[in-house]
Amino acid sequence: MKFFAFHLMPWDRLPDDFAEKYDTAWTWLPNEMFDPEHGGELYNNYLDQLVLADQLGFDGVCVNEHHQNAYGTMPSPNLMASILARQTKNCRIAVVGNAIPFYDPPTRCAEEFSMIDCISGGRLIAGLVVGGGPEYYSFSKNPTFAREMYREAFDLILRAWTEPGPFEHYGKHWKLKYVNPWPRPIQQPHPPIWIPGAGSRETIQFVAQRRFAYMGIPYFHMDFFQRNFDVFRDECEKCDYTTDPEQLGWLLPIYCAETDEQAWAEYEPHLWYFVKKLLKGLVVFPPGYTSARSIAGIQKGLLQFMSTCETREDIEAGGYAIVGSPDTVRQKLSERIKKLGVGNLLGLFQLGTLPHDMTCKNMKLFAEKVMPGLREELSVTLTS
Amino acid sequence: MKTENKTLNIAGKKTQLTILGEGPPLLYLHSAGGETEPIAFHHKLAEKYTVYLPAHPGFALSEGLDQIEDIHDLAWHYVDLLGELNLENVPVVSYSLGAWTAAEVKLMRPNLIGPMVMIAAAGLHVDGSPMEELFIDSFDKLRELLFFDPKGQEAVDYFPADTNDPRILMWLRAREATARVGWNPYLHDPKLAGHLHRLNSPVQVIWGRHDKLIPLAHGEYYAKHLPNAKLTVLEECGHMVPYEKTEETATIALDFLGSV
């Protein structure tokens, strides 16, 4: 069982009347709301939090890529990962991931990931993603080509890492006479690959067929994760192998404080900022982004999305976030990790307005009072 | 009214074709909304013409979207289709996405297409009059965007109410097929404006005064830069011209086609 600290690097100053005045925290949200001075403070706090995760003994830290939004102000996770490659010592650095259809040419991703792998001494986990629905609006990239661009970019990156260059690539979307990236990654044949998904059958099959790792995109009801992970396991069986729990990851907000009551009292306003403001407009499926049938299915899944929650009870019943004393958090996580059969827990310890000191306290309590017990208990359960 | 449904094989693409009415041939090219089943407007046209109503690749039961990468591929599909139907110099009534397609076909093969009716046509970028965002999820907002009266019966009948509507899969397919050719550049061909002087058949441009998706300035641009065009503007009408002004639009179209 591995524990990761996941960071979105969210914007913490959306106005009080945001919910009434704006339809979305994405794409069309006026960027005048971004205050660069404050942005600098946030980025530094956020990096400090991830460095702290390394010091606290987390197995890894996660950064990710989003564009033109308040939910995750990290358009280049590779910049952050390269800083972390220097400032952390032991943990894995998971970039989850680069939205490769937007890299022109995608070999740029192969190059940058190799740099991070080299600087970190081979600690990179390479996430390769299709890019979120809203980003096909932000970049005016045609979403009806999203999947085929993704596959072409993916294969090209893998070849760039594993095949001696220079070689030619004449694909549909990129035509490259010389593919010959310097540098190459330390990890051979290439860094571990993680692929996040929101439940599209296409993504689940793709990951299972290639034996990579599938990261459940968060904020859904437990039942929705369970269905997707079960489908993933079935797809692996169809490919004649049994899923390794390390092939599955589960991301969710976690908050620990001294007691259950204190945890909820401290956390709740920040949780609702996240749910009601930052999540607004996140789940968008532009035309052709995935098959019409998958979109129709995911639309039903959206009835089980965290933004439908109105009360603490809704959050707890759906398992959308784990909040409480270390004992409560440990007990709930243990039960659910076993049920879901995942080998990677990606905790979201900061989710917007949560102040820096509270985020650090949350992570410390988790690392000191939750993680060790879970490690012991789950190393037995998951591997047996 | 005489109606015939066919499935054609157009250069390997399975294509749904409905043929409506009797009389000389007329090609109708449909909009992003996918009016691929006959609507009242088609019936009006079919009183005087044999109306050929094909569904674009990816719409209704037509396939072959994987062979379409941009508007020109779609236009070439119609070059093939007109060849298959043995039609030349055929009058065309076209609406929105279909009108843009008709213009591209006319530029590629001028002999295939005769006089044209272009209703609320996509295809241009007009500085200062941007088109609104069509690819949004909210049906309520789309109704507001497309109809002069978003609460009218046409608006209620025409749109899925929500994602549980049984028409949703066809709706998603139509959206995808539209996005394939119209996502970027957004619903236009940057080179089309420079070609308009070559499109010299008689053209009747029809526009709704209150079109929010494609503002009237686009209609004025077409009328001004096409060598042989006139513009008729309909009052109290949005983008959904054939739905909102069925009789009036059909009369304008038929009068025009009868006069050229």
Task: Write a concise synopsis of the structure shown.
Chain A is α/β, with parallel strands linked by helices and 384 residues long. Chain A contains 13 helices and eleven strands. In chain B, helix 2 packs across helix 3 (97-108).
Lay out the secondary structure.
The complex is a heterodimer of chains A (384) and B (260).
Chain A: E1 2-6, H1 18-21, H2 36-56, E2 60-63, H3 77-87, E3 92-99, H4 107-119, E4 124-129, H5 133-138, H6 146-162, E5 167-170, E6 175-179, E7 193-197, H7 201-210, E8 213-216, H8 222-238, E9 248-256, H9 260-278, H10 292-301, H11 312-318, E10 322-324, H12 326-340, E11 344-348, H13 356-383
Parallel strand pairs in A: 1-2, 1-11, 2-3, 3-4, 4-7, 7-8, 8-9, 9-10, 9-11
Antiparallel strand pairs in A: 5-6
Chain B: E1 3-10, E2 13-20, E3 25-29, H1 40-45, E4 50-54, H2 71-84, E5 90-95, H3 97-108, E6 113-119, H4 139-146, H5 153-158, H6 168-182, H7 192-195, E7 203-208, H8 216-225, E8 229-234, H9 241-244, H10 246-259
Helix pairs in contact in B: 2-3
Q: Helical percent range of chain A?
A: 40-55%
The coarse silhouette of chain B is globular
Based on CA atoms alone, the radius of gyration of chain A comes out at 20 Å
Overall number of strands of chain B: 8
First and last CA, distance of chain B:
26 Å
Enzyme class (chain A): oxidoreductase
EC number (chain A): 1.14.13.-
InterPro entries (chain A): Bact_Lucif_Oxidored, Luciferase-like_dom, Luciferase-like_sf
Domain Luciferase-like (chain A): 36-342
